[in-house]
Amino acid sequence: MKHLIIATSFWLTLTAFAEGPETAVIPPPKEQPVHLDHAVLPAATANPLVWDAMVKEVAIKPMQTTNQFIFWVTNTAKTNVVLQHIQPSCGCTVAKLPKEPWNMAPGEFGPVSAVMNFPGLSGKIEKMLTVYTSEGQQILWLKVNVPLTATTESRRQNMNKAIADKQSVLKGDCASCHVEKGRGKTGEELFAADCTICHQPDGHRAEVVPNLANINKVTSKEYWKYYLETGGPTVMPSFTVAKGGPLSAEEIDTFAEFLNKKFPPKDKSQLKPVSAR
Ligand code: HEC
Ligand code: HEC
């Protein structure tokens, strides 16, 4: 008798599989004792949202600074599943659901797009998307391999020259881009030619170069004068004629005045706390 029961249930299992993937779902263990930690943290069950891939990896062409990824998702549950929100791990990536929230009917499928930006970077870059759903969170990976191009290579070499001698930016070949365009100009035009070239407001700015609209210090005319005269401690050049730069003492004075108006000084209460090291 016992043999018969075992044989029968074995046969039932086989037919269940034979009917196709729909019925081949592994039933949840019924008789297991429920521990408290199981109740709090349910065992990871597979999310019924199934993606065409959880990781997408792309080899980037030279000069390409952005890539669009499309992930396809299918709701394999017998009930609706809601895709609430999608959160990229970096400001460099913009991800979009077809609608938010996206209430997916059983069997429904559709695309999720993510655009990753990597200007000025090279090598392997990996970013993550966290997908918040009514059935828990899922993680998708975006990976690119950006070849070292002539542009990124020459940028690296220029940086090395500036590290060796920061005044080199204002000399020889470098001057055609870094000095000549600002000659005879003042105010906004001088700023655009001589400063924005390195201090770009967007993601093209090198990592070591700060965003001037976001300086976390109490600034003043004297502060701007200090940077124009000395260039600060690292690779920014001094702009004063005395150090081979394009600006006379008066021009520095007038320009510092302009910058102090362009970037109104913050008072101490507006500064972000600097985390202790
Ligand atoms: C053809 C124009 C051009 C020439 C020539 C040039 N630069 Fe630049 N430089 C730029 C631009 C544009 C940027 C802003 C970053 C970018 O777009 O690559 C920049 C940025 C920089 C930066 C900031 C770091 C960075 O990568 O953004 C440094 C340092 C620098 N240049 C140094 C030099 C030195 C040293 C030379 C000469 C050996 C030089 N540059 C020649 C156009 C030029
Ligand atoms: C060759 C690239 C380059 C150019 C051109 C350049 N800077 Fe800079 N600047 C830097 C770098 C790199 C730093 C950060 C390192 C440092 O402080 O030495 C910096 C720092 C600064 C700071 C300090 C910001 C802070 O967080 O305290 C100020 C202010 C500044 N620059 C103003 C200017 C102005 C104004 C101009 C135009 C006249 C200019 N810079 C042109 C590269 C450049």
User: Helix proportion of residues, in percent?
Assistant: 25-40%
Question: Which fold name corresponds to the CATH topology of the largest domain?
Answer: Cytochrome Bc1 Complex, Chain D, domain 2
Low-confidence residue ranges: 4-43
The ligands found in this model are: heme C
* Strand arrangement across the biggest beta sheet: 2-9-8-4-6
Beta strand count = 9
CATH architecture of the largest domain: Orthogonal Bundle
Gist of the model:
This protein has helices at 2-18, 36-40, 150-164, 174-178, 187-195, 221-230, 249-262; strands at 49-51, 55-59, 66-75, 81-88, 93-96, 102-104, 109-117, 123-133, 136-146.
Question: Could you walk me through the main structural features you see in this protein, from its secondary elements to its overall organization?
Answer:
- The chain has about 280 residues and is of the alpha+beta class.
- It has two domains: about 50-145, Immunoglobulin-like (Sandwich), CATH 2.60.40; about 150-270, Cytochrome Bc1 Complex, Chain D, domain 2 (Orthogonal Bundle).
- The chain is about 25% helix and about 25% strand.
- The protein has seven helices and nine strands.
- One heme C (HEC) binds near residues 209, 233, 235 and 239.
